[in-house]
Amino acid sequence: MKFHNKLIYWYLQNKRTLPWRQTKNPYFIWLSEIMLQQTRVTQGLGYYLKFTEAFPTVFNLAKANESTVLKMWQGLGYYSRARNLHYTAKYIANELNGKFPSTFLEIIKLKGIGDYTASAIASICFNEPTAVVDGNVYRVLSRYFGISTPINSTTGIKEFKAIAQSLIDKSQPGTYNQAIMDFGALHCKPQNPLCDSCPFANSCVAFEKNLVKELPVKKKKIKVRKRYFNFLVIQTNDYKTILYEREGKGIWQGLYQFPLIESEKIIDKKELIANKKFTDLFPDETTISLHNKKQIVHKLSHQHLYTQFWIVETASLKNATISWKNIQEFPVPVLISNFLEDFPLKN
């Protein structure tokens, strides 16, 4: 039996029931694929349902302001995905009259859409035989064929794409692509794969040669950068505070945060007060206390943020214009969202 026939047979017996599988509308498929990048299905499902309820069409998403989109995305991380999603929704609504492009080559030109997402949309919605390659697919193919080429190398990316393309069922490419992704997620799992009941056990190189735990191969990660954040959580007598919108191309673009002093190491209260940014912001008397007695380590893909939240109480402050009772309306990074859940808000 051919690889794709055996895979699809497994899929029809074991596939997950998911809302985006009840449609071939490219808007919903696109939304689900963007959300599920670097996000588990169990986590992404709630966000998908929330988004489709708030934005049932691409026109609804296009009309929303970016801050609203980011607020609804809060907790999913990788916020550039949300900004690109919103940008592309506006492009499709305003430039293409709401009609989604129908070929891989057209879809991949859209902002925020790469090879994997374009392949998924083209195959599922428009029956184009373009193979998806994501983490699940890398794992299945590397184990089945015993490939040790690093999956995050230029050579590996090309090699696995070519193999995936050669295996796709051209008569039902969308079903095949969903099948191999589900097989990797549910059966050929990263840890404790179900090899004993695997339909490919008698032809899997990794299983035969006891290489399951060694494959796939990934080149060592980029060195993680350590950063030291000191957030100034301002409380005035009239229950006001300050939030700034992060700008530029760094982390959390478009999200809001408390005034930030970034230092070269963990600092104490004395060092904080001596910082010029602090004295510029607070010319008058303040009361300062450290909220978290132990530094919070927030881990991003290439950065670890060692964070302290300083509570700064002052009678009044010119720039403090945001009422504490409205603070939940602002889209903030998970790091600050977690702090706000733990902090007794003034109102």
Description:
This protein has 347 residues and is α+β, with helices and mostly antiparallel strands. It has 2 domains: 3-214, Endonuclease III, domain 1 (Orthogonal Bundle); 225-342, Nucleoside Triphosphate Pyrophosphohydrolase (Alpha-Beta Complex). The chain has 15 helices and 9 strands. Strands 1, 5, 6, 7 and 8 form a 5-stranded mixed β-sheet that branches. Strand 7 (296-299) and strand 8 (303-314) form a beta hairpin. Helix 1 (3-14) crosses helix 11 (173-186), helix 8 (115-126) crosses helix 11 (173-186) and helix 9 packs across helix 11. It is globular and about 80 Å long. It starts with a helix and ends in a 5-residue tail after the last helix. The model has no long low-confidence stretch (mean pLDDT 93).
- The counted number of beta strands is 9
> In terms of structural class, how would the helical and strand content be classed?
alpha+beta
Mean pLDDT value = 93
Counting structural domains, the number is: 2
The proportion of strand residues reads 5-15%
Secondary-structure map with pairings?
Elements: H1 3-14, H2 26-36, H3 41-54, H4 58-63, H5 66-73, H6 80-95, H7 104-107, H8 115-126, H9 135-145, H10 154-167, H11 173-186, H12 205-208, E1 225-236, E2 240-241, E3 244-245, E4 256-257, E5 260-263, H13 269-274, H14 276-281, E6 287-290, E7 296-299, E8 303-314, E9 322-323, H15 334-342
Helix pairs in contact: 1-11, 2-3, 2-8, 8-11, 9-11
